[in-house]
Amino acid sequence: MNDSLLLTQHLHNTVLTKIGDHRDILVAYSGGIDSSVLLHALVCIQQQHLADLKIRAIYIHHGISQHADQWATHCQQQCAQWQVPCIIEHVILALDAGNIEQQAREARYQAISKHLHANSVLCTAQHLDDQCETFLLALKRGSGPMGLSAMPEVILTHRHYHIRPLLTVSRQQIEHYASAYHLCWVEDESNQDDYYDRNFLRLNVLPIISQRWPHFNQMVARSAELCNEQQQLLDELLQPTFMALIDHQKSLLLEPLYMMSAAKRNAVLRMWFKEHNAIMPSRKQLAVIWQTVIMAKDDSNPQFILHDQQIRRYQNRLYLLPQYQDLLPVVLNWHLEPPLPLPDGLGLLTVTKTNSNCRLPLHDEVVSIRFYAKGNYHIVGRQGSRQIKKLWQEFGIAPWMRSRIPLVFYNEQLITAVNVFVTEQGQGHDLGFSLC
């Protein structure tokens, strides 16, 4: 048996084992050599072993390279030759808004997720050398066991499995396979730009290391596996403690953390970020979060911005939230119908006859929706008036939600904070307000 046949059998068996019982495969197909080999292997497996295997390919058009249209055409033509349905998805990146690699990665997976059916799995073509590069990049960032675990072969994200069938296959084996089958692929010119850290390792560092230690990538993969095992053990041991600290909103009870060692406390916090599928903060960021948010004075309103999210504390619990739009200056005039779309994804405000606890506006009263009020208000069911800040506190409304609750005004009079309270001046039995 010649070397090409042995390699083919090895690679096909590897892919066949990794996809297991899954039969609906969506391949992230860039047209490059790695994803071309993966797609070709799956087509061969379909023809020779699994006639019920359903394969689709998706090409993400980032619009960064001037050759992106040509690559899309190549992918369509190659898929037509292999009788694989091909999806072309365009994404738009903000080229002047920072980390393009991260933007492209997030946009790519967001676009792909739209095409994952109930039983679909995503297959991507990262291989052994990619794993080595990922490990070294994590090492450069000073990552712990979680980061050094690098890429898992199988991961469940948002109800769908993401499988990397070639993660134990080397780049050299992929190149030999592509040569043996005379495959055609595209070359991304950005892969030769060593400005990017991953390319710098691939082009300038790893070739020298491999000359000295030919099996270096395999040893790194073994270290990544060991780190993953250590992280799994740590998660398993901490799981009962962690589950006792989070609620249905995934907020974290803080008081027990004060009694923990720094190492255990940081491990719990990292589990909490992982539970949110958030980008993991660095060790330095974690220390700042502890000091400036968790340990802040009780009467403060601490906040820490982590990428596109905010970390807040309220009533001895920690919250991870999106960065919300500033709604304080927003004023929306409304005629009570049709339903009013609210900004920043807050939903539709509608008039309802159920739970009718407000009066109708008088003929000379203009209805508006606002998100800010000041002063004292006498609300239904309470004696005397209170400052709006005190009312929010009494109703347990977190500081960041106080500017996200729609306030119904008739002229300059506050009538109701929807689903929270009604003022004495707004009391009635004519209508209610609801969010949907």
UniProtKB/TrEMBL annotation:
Residues 367-433 form the Lysidine-tRNA(Ile) synthetase C-terminal domain. It holds the Pfam family TilS_C. The keyword ATP-binding applies. Keywords: ATP-binding, Cytoplasm, Ligase, Nucleotide-binding, tRNA processing. InterPro entries: Lysidine-tRNA-synth_C (IPR012796), Rossmann-like_a/b/a_fold (IPR014729), TilS/TtcA_N (IPR011063), tRNA_Ile_lys_synt (IPR012094), tRNA_Ile_lys_synt_N (IPR012795), tRNA_Ile_lys_synt_subst-bd (IPR015262). It is found in: Cytoplasm. ATP binds at residues 30-35. It is an enzyme of class 6 (ligase). Its EC number is 6.3.4.19. It catalyses: cytidine(34) in tRNA(Ile2) + L-lysine + ATP = lysidine(34) in tRNA(Ile2) + AMP + diphosphate + H(+). Its main location: cytoplasm. Belongs to the tRNA(Ile)-lysidine synthase family. The N-terminal region contains the highly conserved SGGXDS motif, predicted to be a P-loop motif involved in ATP binding. NCBIfam families: lysidine_TilS_C (TIGR02433), lysidine_TilS_N (TIGR02432). Ligates lysine onto the cytidine present at position 34 of the AUA codon-specific tRNA(Ile) that contains the anticodon CAU, in an ATP-dependent manner. Cytidine is converted to lysidine, thus changing the amino acid specificity of the tRNA from methionine to isoleucine. This is tRNA(Ile)-lysidine synthase. It comes from Orbus sasakiae.
